[in-house]
Specification:
By secondary structure, the chain is α/β, with parallel strands linked by helices. It has helices spanning about 20-25, 45-55, 70-80, 100-110, 175-185, 210-225, 225-245; strands at about 5-10, 35-40, 60, 85, 90-95, 115-120, 130, 155-160, 190-200. Strands 1, 2, 3, 4, 5, 6, 7, 8 and 9 form a 9-stranded mixed beta sheet that branches. Strand 1, helix 1 (about 20-25) and strand 2 (about 35-40) form a beta-alpha-beta unit.
């Protein structure tokens, strides 16, 4: 194989508290069928020093950017793998066999354009909180996203040749649009039936709920139509009410 199967991309800025766990999860992989790209936004703490100490990045860029999604676009531009996979600072690959298992699954599904799985949640101390409430469906499609981002961004690999750039017009929901557009294009989507990542539940959009909801409404209306968007939100509200009553 001339090109690496996977381009793992980590975007980071002033994250000396969390970057080590991410780097360790990459370094511990048994199967080295990937390239590792780190995009640092010009950190002023010890983040860059820690990254250099680990010395596992095939590509390291450290410079100012125009925010999270601009940095992610830089990663996409540099990627050479067949699939791109974003594992940002504080997140980690689930275990040391994760890339090995993905390679095995890909070997049996050579026409796959998207590979996805489930997500475990961790807190700022690396303590496991349980599984993500939004469980990736058995058969993931664009329509699955009517109920929200049903697959965590850290647990989906997209074929690089069909991956869109992140739309910088969206401040906190460009990842939702990116996954949606990929699912709309893809004809061969493969469920790994395994946990692919541990996600730090301190997410970027979690601190911007109102803006995230507004942006997702706009995206959904453009892609699904007004009636489908309203109906989806009615079902989401019903689900939350049901959970609240438990």
């Amino acid at each position: 194989m001339n090109k690496p199967l996977i381009s793992i991309i980590t975007v980071v800025y002033n994250s000396e508290q969390f970057i080590q766990t991410t780097l360790e999860s990459v370094a511990q992989q048994q199967e080295k069928n990937f390239e590792y790209i780190v995009i640092d936004g010009g950190s002023t703490d010890k983040t860059l020093e820690i990254i250099k100490q680990y010395n596992i990045a095939d590509v390291l860029v450290s410079e100012k950017d125009n925010g999270l999604y601009d940095a992610m676009n830089k990663g996409l531009d540099l990627a050479k793998g067949q699939f791109v996979w974003f594992i940002n600072s504080g997140d980690r690959l689930f275990d040391d066999k994760t890339t090995f298992d993905i390679a095995q699954i890909y070997a049996q599904n050579r026409d796959s354009e998207i590979i996805y799985g489930q997500t475990q949640l961790i807190d700022e101390n690396g303590v496991v909180l349980g599984m993500r409430k939004k469980t990736a469906p058995e058969n993931l499609t664009a329509d699955s996203l009517k109920m929200g981002l049903m697959v965590c961004h850290q647990s989906i690999l997209v074929k690089r040749s069909m991956a869109s750039r992140y739309d910088l017009n969206y401040k906190v929901s460009a990842d939702y649009l990116w996954v949606l557009e990929a699912l709309e294009k893809a004809k061969h989507i493969v469920n790994t039936h395994r946990i692919l990542s541990s996600y730090l539940e301190n997410g970027f959009s979690a601190h911007n709920r109102t803006l995230a909801n507004r942006e997702r409404w706009k995206i959904m209306r453009q892609h699904f139509g007004l009636f489908s968007t309203i109906w989806a939100h009615v079902k989401i509200l019903g689900r939350y009410i049901k959970e609240y009553k438990k």
